[in-house]
Sequence to fold (285 residues):
Amino acid sequence: AGGEGRPRAVKMHVDPGCTSLVVAETFPLGASLAVDLGAIAAALDAEAACLVLFRLQDEAGSVPGAGESDWGLLAWAPDGAQRKQKMLLAASHTTVREALEGLTIKAFHATDRGDVTLEEFLAKTQPVSEADRRSAMTLEEQQVEDAKREMEQTRAAAPKKLAGLVALQLRTTESFTEAMAALVGGSDKAVLASLSGASGEELSGEVLDGVPAPPALRGHPRLQGEPRYVVAGAGPDRLVVISWLPEGAPVKLKMRYSTFKASLLQVVKEAAGGKAVVAAEVSEA
Fold:
């Protein structure tokens, strides 16, 4: 069934002279969106990026439930297109949406003509169930998400702090204080710090001898397995705080060490005796 003169799609590109969007081509409303996307794909330039705004509603019911105000937006960015052109078109998405306020626009991206199909559009724009979303994630991504959710739940259940107070503040133990004093007052030393205590919010420490600079920590037997913090000298007037987060360590534990990093930096600055303090993160000894 034809569309009686109504366009299916409008192809736009950026005018290099005025960096504004201009209409390059229109496509008539055909029998179905699947057929029309095939015609659109055939007209795409392998060396020029563009945007194609296309109507979702048709008599074939190509997109279930689509109405007059439902449209799709193809962002065509082939590998052969100039980088500047692709960036300008990417920035034009908001311009198109603002100019067509009142329309519901579902966007999808393609770099190959073979991806400009109804099946690809529906796959990339239809809502995904929680089970499908989780099944598409790697095991590590699932663990990170679970750890983040658990930490947020713990934080939400914790007593609310007054405005201006620092959240997640570490409490230093005597062992950490003594180890920092030895580092600041001595040479060829470093401090190996760990989260301890029943709630894991205390900072304990021990002195590592024979560490004149951070490179001496490479392959150190105390930096194996579990996450740790290391504070070492990096010249006469500077300390470096290293977050040791080995790849094989439990995700939840690594996230806990990352969460307390800001508090650790503040603690080290207070104990640094005026020395500058910088931070680094390492995953391989």
